[in-house]
Amino acid sequence: TGNARAEIWYLMAPNTGTPNIRGTMAGSTEMVTGAVSLTVVDQAQTLSTQYFSSNGNSAAPSVNATTTVNNAWVMDVLAYRQENPPGAPTEVTATMTAVAGRIQRWNLRTGGNPASNNDEGGAASTRGPVSPAGVVTLGWTLSRSRQWALGAVAINPFNIPVEMGEVSVG
After folding, report:
1. Is the whole-model pTM more than 0.85?
2. Contact 7/77 with Cβ under 8 angstroms?
3. E strand or H helix at 101, and its extent?
4. d(CA 45, CA 70)
5. In angstroms, what CA-CA distances link 117 with 83, 85, 133, 141?
6. Rounded distance, CA 123 to CA 74, Å?
7. Which of 27, 84, 111, 121 is the most buried (most CB within 10 A)?
8. Listed residue (150, 117, 124) closest to 4, CA to CA
9. pLDDT of 115-124, one tens digit each?
10. How far apart (Å, rounded) are the C-alpha atoms in residues 157 and 80?
11. What's the chain's Rg over C-alpha atoms?
12. What is the pLDDT of residues 82-125, one digit of tens each?
């Protein structure tokens, strides 16, 4: 439909190792994909609480996500459309809005063909551990206004029980 679309997929308790992750689309759809592996994550938590901002058309996409426990992580995924008119520069860039502790995971564009005006861009970041729990705002800055979609998810940590025991001093 000409809209940007962002999706976040996850796999609970994956096998260890270095697997390949593949995305297959029907037809001639362009997409940007990436993957992030996080450790010490709560394997019982379903990520049903995802935060998606409505699609926008601006140079400043942002989304709020709410963590409910201390030391949670937040991941966001940005999709944006190039939609370059003929004769316009073909490159639109996305940069992270500064937030302490945020790590850019990927920032890619499809195409690069000056004759194409429908290239797509995609970027993602993680932030964590976040303490205290609460609202986290994740934002990006596009080099000019474009159609975009932005989503985020809060990921709880695995709570490692601390056992009390006897300590002998000798």
Report:
1. no
2. yes
3. none
4. 15
5. 5, 6, 42, 20
6. 14
7. 121
8. 150
9. 555 678 889 9
10. 30
11. 19
12. 765 556 655 667 777 767 778 989 888 776 555 555 678 889 99
